[in-house]
Design goal:
This protein has 219 residues and is an alpha+beta fold. The protein has one domain (3-163). Helix content is 31%, strand content 21%. The chain has helices at 3-11, 23-26, 29-33, 38-43, 64-68, 75-82, 98-106, 180-188, 206-218; strands spanning 47-52, 57-62, 110-117, 129-136, 139-146, 160-163, 194-196, 203-204. The strands form two sheets. It has a four-stranded mixed β-sheet with strand order 2-1-7-8. The protein has a four-stranded antiparallel β-sheet with strand order 3-4-5-6. The longest helix has 13 residues, at 206-218.
Length: 219
Amino acid sequence: METKEIIYNMLTENTGSHILDSGGAYGRNWERNQVKTIEDFENEPEEVYTYSKQWNELERTVSVFHYLSQLDTDEVCDQFNSMPCNNWDAEDVFGVSTDQWQWLNSIGDIQVLNTFNTYNYDSDLSQILQGSWVEINSEQYLLIQIHGGCDVRGGYTNAKLFKANEQGIIHEYLDEFQDSYVINEYLQDGYITAIDYNDPSIEYTSKQLLEMMNEVKTN
């Protein structure tokens, strides 16, 4: 199965509901995603800047679909991803069954390098990711879960395994996070267009954004 198809299946996977989440009122990520086709995700922008006049803030959102799209798979990934995951009872990683983890350990030397949840860091991603960087027979892999719920404490997909060229590198040029300095630099250079927070049909050029943001600061 191709990487984009795996990611699409994860984005639309029914991850259930959490008793404390607000999905009934606002809709969960997986519920909103299920009305989209894979072509819809392919055609969406890799990144979107949104400007709020009320808060005079410019925010960037990176499409998780595009962010993960440069990952690859091999025979190890294909075998692992085809295995059923009926329980998350593996001891060393998240979203993986004991049977899956035992199988990975049976094919060679495996080391968990580090685990992460993007909720705990600055992140521009459209959805939260949780995962582990692992090394299998000296090759770099990534076990990843996508958060499909509302409450961060639950609502994750089963983990899927991808091949990576280098630890910590998921996408070659679409950074996970841009701080305010970088965004301002791009804005000054005229590289940014943004949509209005309240009315996405309205689009602003870099020049318009600078004028509006400076006007608010001087008032």
